[in-house]
């Protein structure tokens, strides 16, 4: 005999309605949560229980039965359960939350994608210097790699934030935290060349306080720079088409590969917490292992 399928649970639908009304949850999020909670209901049906009747032990049994799920999928399923039971508790439908004291699965932090130093060199050379637009793109790419700025910080730079004499940028990062970032000699030369020969040509008599401008006289946008970066990556023949964040990762990884202190990298990236920066130690370590395997006689 086929197993009994649970009837539609009105509490699940009320919870999903609240997610949509109160948090503006997307259609995909609502569908995922509905699948997760319906899965729990199906697990409880043979025991003549509904999700509202579930105990702490019932949830542990249910999660244990999901052993084939990837950790991220299991974590999302547990998140759906926690949200559902918090809603029931808030609405007075249950006296205790059975999802408390259930540990989330450990999720390995994904390693950021980066570029080799050779690939970065090819990318930085791709724009050339044949026109004002090329001077601008070259300065932006060089500055992004030299400073590790976020793309929003790069396109948001104003002339007043650039100190050519000292060779630094005054950057306003997340949380309105201000930091000084050294530009570096090569990036400084390309930036000076853009300011001397490219920016005024792009503005064509118009006035702007933005550092990087377009041919229409407006400030460069993140989307426009993303497309310019991809075009130059294709011109450079890179197999991996990078995002602006890839160059930020390359900046941090290459600094660590060449012996930079982790706290110095943290300050340059504008990370409030050192633990955010520590992901780059894993990237550098993987590169060292690969170098050892390739060059050591017993690697």
What would your notes on this structure say?
The radius of gyration is 26 Å and the shape is elongated. Mean pLDDT is 83; it is low at 1-5. The protein starts with 9 loop residues before the first helix and ends with a helix. The chain has two domains: 10-90, Tyrosine recombinase, N-terminal domain (DNA polymerase, domain 1, Orthogonal Bundle), CATH 1.10.150.130; 117-295, Orthogonal Bundle (hpI Integrase, Chain A). By secondary structure, the protein is mainly alpha-helical. Strands 1-2-3 form a three-stranded antiparallel β-sheet, with no helix packed on it. It is built from 13 helices and three strands, in the order αααααααβββαααααα.
Give the helices and strands, then pairings:
Layout: H1 10-23, H2 27-44, H3 56-64, H4 71-90, H5 117-125, H6 132-147, H7 151-155, E1 162-163, E2 168-172, E3 178-182, H8 185-203, H9 222-235, H10 244-257, H11 262-269, H12 274-277, H13 279-295
Antiparallel strand pairs: 1-2, 2-3
Helix pairs in contact: 1-2, 5-6, 6-8, 6-10, 10-13
Quick synopsis:
This protein has 299 residues and is mainly alpha-helical.
């Amino acid at each position: 005999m086929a197993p009994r399928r649970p009837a539609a649970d009105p509490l699940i639908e009320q919870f999903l309605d609240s997610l949509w009304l109160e948090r503006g949850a997307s259609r995909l999020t609502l569908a995922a949560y509905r699948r997760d909670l319906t899965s729990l209901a199906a697990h409880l049906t043979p025991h003549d229980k509904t999700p509202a009747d579930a105990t702490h032990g019932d949830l542990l049994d249910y999660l244990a039965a999901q052993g084939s799920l990837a950790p991220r999928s299991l974590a999302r399923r547990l998140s759906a359960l926690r949200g559902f039971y918090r809603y029931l508790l808030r609405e007075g439908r249950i006296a205790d939350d059975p999802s408390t004291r259930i540990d989330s699965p450990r999720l390995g932090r994904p390693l950021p994608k980066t570029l080799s130093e050779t690939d970065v060199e090819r990318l930085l050379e791709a724009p050339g210097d044949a026109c004002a637009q090329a001077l601008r793109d070259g300065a932006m790419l060089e500055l992004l790699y030299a400073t590790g700025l976020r793309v929003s910080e790069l396109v948001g730079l104003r002339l007043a934030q650039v100190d050519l004499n000292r060779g630094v940028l005054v950057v306003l990062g997340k949380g309105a935290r201000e930091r000084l970032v050294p530009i570096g000699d090569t990036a400084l030369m390309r930036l000076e060349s853009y300011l001397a020969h490219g920016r005024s040509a792009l503005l064509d008599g118009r006035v702007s306080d933005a550092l990087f401008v377009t041919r229409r006289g407006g400030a460069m946008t993140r989307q426009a720079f993303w497309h310019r970066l991809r075009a130059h990556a294709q011109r450079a023949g890179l197999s991996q088409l990078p995002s602006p964040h890839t160059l930020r990762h390359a900046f941090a990884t290459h600094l660590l590969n060449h012996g930079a202190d982790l706290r110095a990298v943290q300050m340059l990236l504008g990370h409030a917490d050192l633990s955010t920066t520590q992901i780059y130690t894993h990237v550098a370590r993987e590169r060292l292992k690969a170098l050892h395997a390739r060059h050591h006689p017993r690697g």
